[in-house]
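In response to the reviewer comment on reproducibility (Comment 2.3), we provide here a single inverse folding case reported in full, input and output, so that an independent group could reproduce the run without further information from us. The structure tokens appear first.
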């Protein structure tokens, strides 16, 4: 286990018996701490581990620096045919992930245990596929698929005037 600490952020890095890297972040992720997060996610050589779970339950603030670090780690992991997952984001951090749409790219789980216990094949990140849902908006009962915390139905939508008008053209 490795622990990196600054005055506003601590990162604890460990590896499970299955070879999954777990990064537990605590504090604030912003312009001043974003490089620490990026270094923790990508390592000193800039290559992420193939399978990483980022536990965010103790993160109190995250701006675009954290979003960018997660995106960079996702790209590096998928290049190695791996994945990055987010575990236990607080409601405010999950809201940020949803607003920028990162939850549609990196799967979020309500707990660390759930992120670690899901089948290690992450078909969505490997193939760029969306989750399959039943008509009720719940993840489909397919044991080979991830079990995300939420569906796209929960995502905030734009205000009136965003995107095309709702209704038939000319009508």
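Designed residues, in position order:
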């Amino acid at each position: 286990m490795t622990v990196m600490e600054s005055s506003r952020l601590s990162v604890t890095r460990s590896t499970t018996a299955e070879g999954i890297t777990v990064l537990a972040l605590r504090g604030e992720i912003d312009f001043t701490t974003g490089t620490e997060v990026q270094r923790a996610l990508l390592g000193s050589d800039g290559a992420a581990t193939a399978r990483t779970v980022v536990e965010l339950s103790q993160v109190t603030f995250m701006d675009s620096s954290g979003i960018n670090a997660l995106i960079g780690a996702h790209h590096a992991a998928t290049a190695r045919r791996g994945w990055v997952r987010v575990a236990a984001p607080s409601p405010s951090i999950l809201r940020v992930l949803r607003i920028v749409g990162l939850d549609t790219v990196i799967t979020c789980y309500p707990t660390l245990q759930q992120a670690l216990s899901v089948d290690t094949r992450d078909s969505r990140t490997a193939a760029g596929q969306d989750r399959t849902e039943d008509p009720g908006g719940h993840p489909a009962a397919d044991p080979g698929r991830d079990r995300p915390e939420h569906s796209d139905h929960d995502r905030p939508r734009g205000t009136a005037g965003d995107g095309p008008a709702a209704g038939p053209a000319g009508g």
